[in-house]
């Protein structure tokens, strides 16, 4: 309960929630009972501190994942490398396709392997679903292209700058695995609320940095190549 109140304070300070909205979160028992009885029970069940239908408008996974703007993983509190080495950087995702009817999205994900200095890419698809008692689609049911494996990613928090996303399969009673993703336009913004929510809701102590602003910014040669290509297209169009 304390974490929910602190989250509301963070949203109020950052402008993500109005005073009217803050009042709405303090529903009476009768209102909560009415909401629960009229909301269809379907979807996966979670027991995280922020799992609350009254907070669902701050956990809109569909809105975040269907943005035309690329987003980047700043850090996570776990490491998938079996040796514990930090060899992954410049992690970003870009929307390729979305289906409004089925709530299916496809992204291309790229990252830099700092050992080989090679950029690796793959496609990852998701069906965006609602957890139990939610009407907002707040959970990613993700699959890696070419595999039969899938896992759930509940959104703990999302706004116009960032999203704190849980990796449910890596979480248990004592450890809560999370990732912090940020839109390109927010990389150089003040993100204190995003960092606060991550530290509030996710296990603290270790953070694997997966996006270094200096390392990951476009190289001058890449920028020049884009400019040259655009100029060539313009020249062709005027001929």
UniProtKB/TrEMBL annotation:
Gene3D superfamilies: 2.40.128.20. It comes from the Eukaryota. One of its GO terms (biological process) is symbiont-mediated perturbation of host defenses. The keyword Signal applies. Keywords: Signal. Residues 1-18 form the signal peptide. One of its GO terms (molecular function) is amine binding. This is Putative salivary lipocalin.
